[in-house]
Structure formats: C-alpha cells, structure tokens
ATP-dependent DNA helicase RecG
Amino acid sequence: MNFFDTKIEFLKGVGPQRAALLNQELSLFTFGDLLQHYPFRHEDRTSFQQIRDINERLPNVHIKGRLREWHIVGEGSKKRLVATFSDLTGTMDLVWFQGVSYFEKYLRPNGEYIVYGKPVQFGGRWSITHPELDLLTPENSEGGYWQPIYPLTEKLRRKNLDSKVLGKMIQVLLEMAWPHIRETLPDYIIQKYKLVSKRDALWQFHLPQSAAWLHQAQRRLKFEELFYNQFRLIKNKLLHKTEYPGMIFDRSAIVQDFYNHHIPFQLTGAQKRVLHEIHGDLLTGRQMNRLLQGDVGSGKTIVAFITMLFALDNQAQSCLMAPTEILAEQHFQGLRKFADLMGITIGKLTGSTRKKERMRIHEQLLSGEMQIIVGTHALIEDIVQFKNLGLCIIDEQHRFGVAQRAKLWAKNDRINPHMLVMTATPIPRTLAMTLYGDLDISAIDELPAGRKPIKTVHRYDANRSAVFGFVKEELHKGRQVYMVYPLIEESEKLDLKDLMDGYESVSRSFPEVPLSILHGKMKAKDKDFEMQRFVKNETKIMVATTVIEVGVNVPNASVMVIENAERFGLSQLHQLRGRVGRGADQSYCILMTSYKISADTRLRIETMCRTNDGFEISEVDLQLRGPGDLSGTQQSGITDLLVANLAQDGAILKEARMTAQQILEADQHLLQPEHNPIKVHLENLRKEETNWSRIS
C-alpha cells in the first residue's frame, strides 16, 4: 500500500478517537489528507515586542513577561478573569471570559510566560482578551518561528485540537514522510523557475523557518497545483481537437443573404471578430467547443443567430438551451424576429408546452422541417430527436451540468454537434482559464451602436424623496422603472426594506401609477402574467426581488432603483443593472444604502458608479469575494485549489498554463524521459480515490 494512504489513526499522537474527530470534522482520513491540510495563514512569532512598544497598528503582539496577580470581576454572563502581566517596560491586562475556572487552576503566581494576541486599549491601558499563553522555557525563549494557522471547527477547538496540536501531528508526519515524497515536476522546470524541491516546499509551508522560505514554499506549491490543473484542461482541449470530429460548415449563401438584405443594424467590431473566430472553428472538421462571454445587452443573440445560419446553410439543425422559461422565451422572441425575415422555421419547447404542440415539434424536428429550436431542459428528454443536429448553443452554461450537455451531444449519433456556450456573467481571465481552460474563449467587449452607457449613482436612504422625484420625472417621459428589494418578507434579524413593505411605500408615493410585483415564491404562470403586463407597458413600475436578474428585455425601462444595495454582491448588482439600458434612451441605476456601510461595500458601490465594464467589475469581485463564491464557479477546477488563489496568483497561473501547453505540444504522450515525473504523478492520480494529487 502507498505510504500516503495509511489511515491517520496510526500516526503517533492521533489514535482512534482523534482520528474519528478529524474524519468527521475535516474529512481527513489518510496521511496524504493530513499533509494536504495546509495552513491558511502563518503568525509571525520570530521576534518579541515589549509592552511599551505596543500600538494600534500591530495586529498581534508576542511578549515575554511575568504574571503578577489575577482576580475575578463581575457575575453571571459578565464574569471574567483579569490578570496583570508585566515586563521590564510596562504592565498590561490579560482577560478571559471563558474557561475562568480552568485558568484559575492553571495560572502560576509570578510565573514567567509568553503571551500572544491582539492588543486593545481601554481606559488608557492595554489588554489582550483570550491570549495564547505558554510557560517560558529555554526552548521557546528565543522565539524564531512562524505559527501555522489551520482551518478548524468549533468542535475541534472544544476538544483541545487547535492549530498547535495539528502542527505537531504534521511535524511528526513530515519526518516519517520525508523518504516517501517524490518530485512531481521535471528538473528543467524546477531550474527554469528556480523552484524549491517538493520535500522542502511541504516542510517549509507547514513549518517555515523564515518569511523567505515560506514565500518559496508557497510559490512552488501554487505553481505545481496550477500546472496540473491546466495540464488536465489543455489535454482535454487537445483531445477534443484530435479525437472529436465535427461537421464542416463551408457553405454560407444564407449567411451572405442575411448580411446583404436583412440584417437590421450594423454589427460591432467585437461581434464581427467573434463571428470570424466561430466560423474558423466550423471549417476545421473538428467539433467546436467555444465559450462566448458578453455583458447583458452586448449582442450575443445576433451572433448566435448567424452561427445558426451557418448550420442551416449546411443542412444542419440548431438548438439553443436556456436555464429558465423566462430566458428561453426571451431568446425565442429575439431569434424569431430574424427567423421570420428569412422564412426559417423556429420552435420553442419548455416544460409548459402543451401536449399537442409538443407532438408537432417532435415530428418537425425528426423530419428536419424545424430548423431551429429554443428551449429549456425539455430539449434533453429522450423523446426529443433530430434529423441532423449540427449546433448546440447553451446559455448561462454554469446552470447546466456536464451530463446535461452530454445528453445534447448524443442527439446526433453520427457526428458530434458543434458547441457554443454563452454567458452574460463576465468571468475574470484567471477564472476563465481555470474553469473553462478546455474551451476556446471569445468575448464581446463592445456595446451595440446607439446604446448609451447606464449612469449609476449612489444615494443614501435620507435622499429617498429626491430619488422618488426623479422617478416621477422619468415616468412622465413615458419610461418604466424597476424597484428591486433583497427580501420578500420582513425579517426580525435584518433591518431591511422588504418587498411587501416596499410595494406599499411605492403605492403610496405613486398612487396613480399601475404597479407589477414579482418574486420567487410566485407560481410560474403568475410571474409570467406580471412580467407580460410590464413588457406590454400596462404597468409602469415593477417592484421585484432579484428574480428579474435574468428576465425579459424591456427597452422602455430606463430606471432601476436597488434598495439595500449593500446586501448584493458586485456581479449581482451588475446583472441587475443590465435590465435597463436596452433601448436608445439614457438609462439610470440608483443604488440606495444606509449611511453605515463597510469598506468592502463602499468599494463595490464605487466600482459600480465608476464603470459599466463587466470584465473590470468581475476582477474587483474576484479580489473581494475569492473564486469559490463567484456565480456558478463552485464546480470542478476551482474548489480543487488548496494553495493557489486566483485573485492573487494570475501571474503564476499564466506561467503554469504556458508550461503545460509547451509540454503537451512537444510530447503529448509524455514519452520523453525528462517528463517521467509528470507521467508517474498522473498515473498515481488516476489510481487513487483520495485527492492525493500533490505528493505521491
């Protein structure tokens, strides 16, 4: 058996009880799991401070001194233990609210201790609440180490399994593991990037002897992690390009006819560039696998339609799959305008399509009479069969799983249909490389001609009457307005404008104006009814929750007021704002907040007011929230990353990707002796069930 597959209960200092806890709380089962349980930060205990040197700028202090005396203050929930601690330069307090009786027994009068914690000044005197306290010994009196801080749970802390205990276990394991740790990168890559060895990287990441060593250990582990992440994605991409044939779409008479006689507006430079990239894929004889990114309203629909015309020109059918009925309806209406101009048969298939209509669509798809179909998950049902499906377009791809996409592929058993995946959620470049590194990526980064950028402003709740005055002016011009609230009903815990309260307030402020209301708890047919009233301009104000985030295109809606904007993430604010600005009129987005907002919220609001560029917004969002929280990215490729941080490690990712690409281009099957470490590592990866990718 592989050393790293040994169960952790056999490690000295662990045993069955602790092992059961670590299994349950942290999913740590083997030596390999434990070594990969990396610290998320390290505390600098390399030197000591003195009490007289304490100031607010120090996040934590590390002090040697003597415990003079202690006493209990207060009663009940306010009961606390306060100790006086001093060194040669001054005196401070140490305070415990929990474990009072334990510390009373544990503390030694006039004992010499090392204290570590965050200093706070109160009444002109410094104190540390719940400090870390160690008896001063000849071994620790010099300081000189970095304390790793590991991800833990409350239950582990209660059982006295803290970062120090975990660190000691890992040190024992590292000493045992040393002869078993194999190099996982070729020598020439290690030399090229001046990387430390795998052994040193593991040791120094868990138990760094200096800041420089810690930096080098992190750099090595990040590079390796991102290298294997990219290697897997690029290998899949190459496989696609060599193993998966696709139809050749070389005829383009219908496309030319559309361009010359029917296209209702000029394409932007970005749309033309993207179409050129797509057409290049369609001529190769390999299956296209392309991601099309573009903000809401950037003109992805026309690009999708022209791509469908290439399929049509070559006797192939196309389908477009969207995650919701509202979105499918929007795409259907958008495409039907163009299809009618060209005399093309187009249909729509969703969960609510009537049985009779459904049967007709099934027959027309099978005979080839229906050339384009737009729908939801209903398209992947087994009963839906095509005469010759040549192109699948998937909108908001992160809402669909791999199995669902594979079902679409299977609709043509002779040759794989081409795949175009679209998203209106701009994805930062580093994230796109990691999530969609196996796809070719195109971006529409230009607004259609005649569109004015949306003006975004921040207003406080105190300015509400002025905001409502502005809304009245826009309504007088014949415009429509969205008012978005974060919650449906009042919550005792959150002092927020809830939807029903908001609806009443808007009704009072605009008594003559017909209103619609839309929220997630409504039935589908009621949602649709309300949305259609707004689309037809029968209602002038739509009071809604975020269900309108991906909603219907209403060019006449020119104002969006977002209440409690501090409750929304950046990408959500950007998606919501994209509901206005669909027509030629100047549109506005008003972000309402209370005066009390955090620094992060202020940065989000300032970013929204400064730019309409979805890619710039997504970069700021990545910095603020990290990759795991971004919309739809909690899928394979992101959560695997244990050390790398895509918000900070873009430069390492770029080098790792380039290295993986070069190796795969030169030696795809890893036959050259210098690539043996990669080959062995990948074989071990495939064999092992545990995620033991970085050592064995």
The CA atoms of residues 122 and 233 lie 55 Å apart. The longest strand covers residues 61-73.
